[in-house]
Amino acid sequence: MSNDAEMSAATPASGVGGHDGLDPYGLDRDGLERLLVQELGEPRYRVEQVHSWLVRGIDDPTEMTDLPAGLREELSRRFAPTRPELVAHTVADDGHTHKLLLRFPDGEAIETVLMLYPERATVCISTQAGCAMGCPFCATGQAGFRRQLTAGEVVRQVVVADAALRSGVIGAEHLPDGSPERVTNVVFMGMGEPLANLPATLATVRWLHDPQGFNLSARSITVSTVGLVPGITKLAELGLPVTLAVSLHAATDDLRDDLVPVNRQHPLAEVEQAMASYRRTTNRRVSIEWCLIGDVNDDEVQADRLAAIARRLRAHVNVIPMNPTPGVRWREPTRARVDAFVRRVETRGAAITLRDTRGRDADAACGQLLASYTLGAGTRLPAAVGAADRVDAGLSTVDPAGGSSS
Description:
This protein is of the alpha/beta class. The protein folds into two domains: 20-78, DNA polymerase, domain 1 (Orthogonal Bundle), CATH 1.10.150.530; 85-396, Aldolase class I (TIM Barrel). It is built from 14 helices and 14 strands. The chain has helices at residues 3-10, 29-39, 45-55, 69-78, 139-143, 151-167, 198-209, 229-237, 253-259, 268-282, 300-313, 335-347, 368-376, 387-396; strands at residues 85-92, 97-103, 109-117, 120-124, 128-130, 145-148, 169-170, 173-174, 185-188, 221-225, 243-247, 287-292, 316-321, 351-354. The protein has a ten-stranded mixed β-sheet with strand order 1-2-3-4-9-10-11-12-13-14. Strands 5-6 form a two-stranded antiparallel ribbon. A hairpin with a 2-residue loop joins β7 and β8. α11 packs across α12.
């Protein structure tokens, strides 16, 4: 794709006014057919023509050169100016990690990360502006929830990254030689809780999996959740074996109640049952995500109980040492402590991987690029306020064997 196409996907259209109208990326194939065939009386093949342009990152009908002039004019009137503007861009890992701050026409900003590997390009996408889950170690969770993203706004994040790969340029930066030419994997692990915005998440999964669209295999799509059980059930009913990744972070309810406040509504036993059901329905192994926090969830008791859960579920554990986060006093464990935790889980029969912490030198952990703005304004969720104090106080009263010292 040309640089013009990359800019078409990543920058706002000129003359942006109101926000009325259709976001073409919010229309699935049926939606395009209703618009083009039923409303405008066009032949059915116009659906494929318009969809093909959208996949290539072109949403300006004036650039869809195989459409008749009259149709281009009509679509220009109907399509809303919803392209995101690239307002911040940080680069890490010798050009292999790109953190993007994208701002939509209403002024709301979200984060997207493009991670480059040999023969693989993974995009980490956001589903909400902010997050209502209130996890106290997460930069996004500290800032609170602002609004849901539309399906079109979620899909556009992948379009921006894919256009950059096709052109070899993102913002003012050239991508490293040998970078893949298209997105190969998508992970719903950016800002927000994907299953708290289920309509947009499911619509995006369908868009990405469409053989005439991005044509990603279901197994190359990962949806993360803190454990919203009704959403896990709905995701299983989609009929696509996407990877389910559950952010557990604690293997006891008392600790998880504060680290992941939604645990008060969906405790560990309920979450584990939902994960087991998802595996039975999809025949797809689930993953457990574990942000390892120094002197909080890196002890032997947590390791042992995590291993037991993973064995029962035949799940794979991904451990990621905590990135330093603005407004959070906790830090990652020492390397010796990390290695001991991973080794203990592994020796107790669970499959576990210590994941690379990409983008540490560019604030590329979820929410960090935006955190300095939101935390600077003093915005913080009630669930996050005091959580660190409660966790630390609780830990000080528990001995290594798991009992109370009082």
